[in-house]
Design the sequence.
């Protein structure tokens, strides 16, 4: 049975497509905010209209793009290591709403960022700092969506996670609505609901299990799990699926909603497969974590990742992240996106 599970996993890994697009041949050679909301701005034509992301998009127009991002991420995470998981979570929340379009970065009344569900998101200042530095090097050419994609990858890598090649060429959304945040999977949803959400993104059950593995790093606010600890299913008790000793620890730790708890109790700052081992021991923090070992569609994959060497998880995480970062992107062909001058502000509006 064990060999069969591993074989299934290996086959799934092999058949996940790794998107690699052709190089662009007509990239702009000068600065300018392509696709600005101003209808009289003709810089839209500076950008290619092929609706393809490219691994070499910035090679000529902003060759230091990835170097600037990596340097800034290293500077900030050296001072605050918790920013690594925060950036990864910020990308998930961006891509999981209207696609990877940097809409989560817009900061105005009624935006995704102002939604109550987004109040614990962090990393905005780091993205703004990267954008400011890049604007000095190649003004008007690098989108906030591409910056967030690169920064989350570099933060993961600097935490010991895998490195993957990003294709670029995204544009930024012009709109952001708090009501759309309801699309982001919560820690209390069941597996069927999560799978339906992932399938709507073009992702599959393997991606769900693998991307849930991001919880091998980072923390959760106790407010998100208090009902599971103190009033499970309105019983005023604790979820019986939690290991009893671990439940005792969580109850002591989470008396106050604003406290935090590591999502991986064993190796909380190491990017490894311990998350899956924890789930096998009934030590999943979020309901959606622990449900992965109960559902027959996801349990075999959890078991396989728990039992195989960590590099199996790391390699597949890289593949699934590439897929996630390509969800709902806006490119030059769409003509509805922009290159925002400031990631938190619309180009044509005062807020």
Sequence:
């Amino acid at each position: 049975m064990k060999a069969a599970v591993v074989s299934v996993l290996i086959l799934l890994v092999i058949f996940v497509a790794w998107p690699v697009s052709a190089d662009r041949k007509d990239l702009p050679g000068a600065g300018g905010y392509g696709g600005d909301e101003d209808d009289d701005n003709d810089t839209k034509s500076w950008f290619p209209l092929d609706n393809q992301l490219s691994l070499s998009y910035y090679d000529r127009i902003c060759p230091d793009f990835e170097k600037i991002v990596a340097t800034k991420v290293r500077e900030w995470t050296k001072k605050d290591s918790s920013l690594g998981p925060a950036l990864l979570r910020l990308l998930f929340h961006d891509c999981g709403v209207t696609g990877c379009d940097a809409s989560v970065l817009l900061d105005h009344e009624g935006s995704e960022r102002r939604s109550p569900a987004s109040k614990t998101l962090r990393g905005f200042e780091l993205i703004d700092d990267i954008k400011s530095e890049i604007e000095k090097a190649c003004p008007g050419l690098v989108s906030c969506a591409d910056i967030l994609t690169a920064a989350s990858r570099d933060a993961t890598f600097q935490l010991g996670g895998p490195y993957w090649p990003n294709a670029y060429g995204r544009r930024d959304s012009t709109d952001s609505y708090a009501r759309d945040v309801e699309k982001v999977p919560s820690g209390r949803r069941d597996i069927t609901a999560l799978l339906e959400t992932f399938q709507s993104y073009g992702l599959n059950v393997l991606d769900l299990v693998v991307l849930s593995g991001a919880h091998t790093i980072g923390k959760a606010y106790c407010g998100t799990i208090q009902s599971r600890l103190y009033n499970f299913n309105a019983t005023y008790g604790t979820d019986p699926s939690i290991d009893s000793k671990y439940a005792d620890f969580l109850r002591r730790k989470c008396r106050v909603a604003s406290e935090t708890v590591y999502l991986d109790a064993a190796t909380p700052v190491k990017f490894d497969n311990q998350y899956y081992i924890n789930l096998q021991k009934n030590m999943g923090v979020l309901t959606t974590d622990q449900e992965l070992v109960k559902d027959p569609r996801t349990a075999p994959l959890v078991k396989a990742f728990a039992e195989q060497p960590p590099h199996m998880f790391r390699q597949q995480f890289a593949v699934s992240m590439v897929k996630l970062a390509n969800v709902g992107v806006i490119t030059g062909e769409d003509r509805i996106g922009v290159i925002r001058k400031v990631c938190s502000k619309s180009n044509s509006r005062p807020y």
Observations:
- Residues 65-79 form the longest helix (15 residues).
